[in-house]
Structures are given as structure tokens and as C-alpha cells.
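thought: fold this chain, then report.
action: predict
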Amino acid sequence: MSWTSWRRRALTLLSVCVLLPLGAQGCGTSEAHGDAGAISPSPVGKVLDDTDEAGRHLREVGKEDAPEVGVEVTPDAAGGWDVRLRLRHFRFSPAGARSKAVHGRGLASLFVDGRRVARLDAPEYHLAPRLFPHGTHHVTARLYADDGTVWAVHGKPVQSTADITASGAETGSAATP
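observation:
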């Protein structure tokens, strides 16, 4: 065997050892199969076809470590209402977080009688008295992942509702788990 053919074989073997792992890594992508528009599976839970009333898809997670929310609403001295969320297996995302679902992280939306009134990135919020004419009202807190999907368990959004009664001189409070 000549010196040149030995060098050629050694370089070929070296090239194969270096390029083979790189080529195998690329074969697993959707682009390698000509399907650049494919959506990769979600890293957290399963995105369902079902949506909430605003059209946001539900992200199903197991009950054992699913996010949980409780909402407490108490009247304040100025006639408004103070809302406090009790959270379990959930934390609010920091400002500027990527639009990617991360287990147990995201934001909350606050609804009064089914109408969204606030997007929350902290567990406390103040509701103005103008939102509550005389009568009974429903204050709901719902948890969302950073990608805009709704956290869900058994096909139902992770949320909690407190019923309050506005009478003009607010002295009562309401809370639900």
C-alpha cells in the first residue's frame, strides 16, 4: 500500500467519523423530510382542539402537578374590590419571557361576569367600583401559559370564580377555592 492511498483512506475515515454524527442529527428534523411547516410536539402537556370562549386552545396537563388557582375578592374602603390569587404549582413569568409554554408558568386573566378586565402578572389586583353595578357578579381568574394557551385539567380551564354582591356600601367579601 502506497503512502498516498494510506493517507486517502485515513482522511476518508476521519471525515466519516466527523460528519456521520452531524448528518444523523439533521435527519430527525422536519426540514430533512421536506415538511418545514410541521408543528413540533409540545414540550408541556397536550394542546387540545378545544378552546375557551375567547378562542384560545386548552393545554391539557395531568392533575397531580397541574397549576391551581383560588381567587379571593374583598371590598376596599374606596368602594372598589381587591383581588388576591392563591396559586399552587404556578408562578408568574418574568417580564420579557419567551412565548413558549413552560410547565407551571405563565400569567392570569381576570374576568368580571365573563368579560376580560385585566391581564395579571402578579397575584394581587384592584378592581374599580364602576365594574360592579348593584347586584351579584362573578369574578374569575384563569391561568394561561406564555404561548397563550389555557392551562387545563380533564378538558376544563384551570380557573376559579368568586361571587360578590355589590350594594353600594361594600362591607362583605367573597372567596372560593
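thought: worth noting. Residues 16-40 have pLDDT under 50 and may be disordered.
final: C-alpha cells above.
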